[in-house]
Amino acid sequence: MQFLVSLLWLASVGRASSKATSDSALTVKTNTGIFTGVQNSYHATVREFRNIPYAQSPVGKFRFLPPETLPHSDEHIYSTRFPPSCPQFEGTSPSFWNTYGTYFLPQNGNQNHSNGQSLQTGSEDCLRLAIWTPYHVAKGSKLPVIVWLPGGGFTSGGVDVICQKPQSWVSRTQGHIVVSVNYRVGIFGFPNAAGSDSPNVGLLDQRKALEWVHENIEAFGGDPEAITLWGQSAGAISTDYHNYAYWDNPIVRSSFSQSGTALKGTATEDYSHTNFTFVAKSLGCDFPNNPKAELQCFQNVPATQITNFIGTTNETISFNPIIDEKLVFSNYTARAAEGKLANIPSIYSDVANNDATLAPWPSSNVTVGPWEPAIVAGTLSGWVCATANTSNMRHAANRLTYRYQYAGRWSHVEPFPWLGAYHSSDNPMIYGTYWLNTTNATTGPTEAEAQTSETMQDMIFAFLKDPVKGPPALGWLPYTYGSNVLRFGADGVPVQNVSGYEIDGPCYGNGTYNPYP
């Protein structure tokens, strides 16, 4: 039965409803166009606007530069297919993601997940977003809105990820709207070109999308003053970057950083622009004394040639956010102490064994797994302690903060016992798509898993509706030093309250961290 449901759902994400051209509820007028969406074929109470531009196409002279605002338009566009992901390549190194975790990756048309080639379903014309709303919601309904920034290590990701489509969640609540955003990644999003003063255009894409949502979401039944910015992994780090970069004008009412904060330490300081120049020179743009000429030349090299070059020969070359003291800073502790941190309620979360799928994949002994002390050390230094320090900084700055740890272990999503609650494993729990994961096809979802998913959805929905009073009404209390943290899914229990000291203690020399609570 579960397999049949999966097939029906997969069909629903791939085809447009027959009502797409006839039902007025599916057509919405915005400042930048008139969009006709589709009714979800499996969740009839949900409508989807799958492909809406929020900025001009970043091609040609716009490549590597900040996004350009769209002009006003009355063009009628049928928004029935999900947008292409921004340019990226399939990794060549064996990993959890390209072996057991492919349903966390953008749809790629059955392309080999480990050939290093440019994503065949990608395109530079990618600054698009998708919107899911209850079907019968109308302008003026003022539903809370949550804007999703996908993860992917700032090198991959996008809207069209099968386990990150929220029709099940929206159908269940009938009370909120979800927006998912494509933004430029890799060299296209974080080029750090010497010929430009904008090294972090991927973050500017995210801001441009937020501005579009704020200006237009009311037409879809949303409340422009009740937007939550939500991201996971690189999206979570981005979300926290916005809390500091736009602290005096955040646009959003609240934020949710899921496995990642500005303290994660992914930003770099390549002030000599060596990585961009290396790739440009390798592809025929050799202008060592003329950065503008280098940039202009490289804007005309085919995007697939760039991604193929990096993916097949230089996969480890880094194009991450750059510390520019405008969008990404070197002094977050000082900025928080100075109050240069958005005064909005925020959720910060982690999964219990975050680093298990991020460390080098143990292909030669995958059943035993990597050395556990190394995984624990990576989980602490890269994730748990960054979240703990961020939460404590926020508490000192009198910023309302909630925390959770996801610790669910379900046999059908955990092919090897050493994985535990791994990076991204809470995504399908929030989206309600956990049953699509058939990593271990011999088992299926359990009732406890379903209850945990619904509990997580309910807690986050309460935060969306009222980030101050909503969570406490369900027993989720604000975080103070070492205080209340929710733990979801441990031992099959949907939710428990635990002490922050139990989780964070090892960051400060107290106790031993348990990756399998």
UniProtKB/TrEMBL annotation:
<dbReference type="InterPro" id="IPR002018">
    <property type="entry name" value="CarbesteraseB"/>
</dbReference>
<dbReference type="InterPro" id="IPR019826">
    <property type="entry name" value="Carboxylesterase_B_AS"/>
</dbReference>
<dbReference type="GO" id="GO:0017000">
    <property type="term" value="P:antibiotic biosynthetic process"/>
</dbReference>
<protein>
    <recommendedName>
        <fullName>Carboxylic ester hydrolase</fullName>
        <ecNumber>3.1.1.-</ecNumber>
    </recommendedName>
</protein>
<keyword id="KW-0732">Signal</keyword>
<feature type="signal peptide">
    <location>
        <begin position="1"/>
        <end position="18"/>
    </location>
</feature>
<keyword id="KW-0378">Hydrolase</keyword>
<dbReference type="Pfam" id="PF00135">
    <property type="entry name" value="COesterase"/>
</dbReference>
<comment type="similarity">
    <text>Belongs to the type-B carboxylesterase/lipase family.</text>
</comment>
<dbReference type="InterPro" id="IPR029058">
    <property type="entry name" value="AB_hydrolase_fold"/>
</dbReference>
<feature type="domain" description="Carboxylesterase type B">
    <location>
        <begin position="26"/>
        <end position="348"/>
    </location>
</feature>
<dbReference type="GO" id="GO:0016787">
    <property type="term" value="F:hydrolase activity"/>
</dbReference>
<dbReference type="InterPro" id="IPR050309">
    <property type="entry name" value="Type-B_Carboxylest/Lipase"/>
</dbReference>
<dbReference type="GO" id="GO:0072330">
    <property type="term" value="P:monocarboxylic acid biosynthetic process"/>
</dbReference>
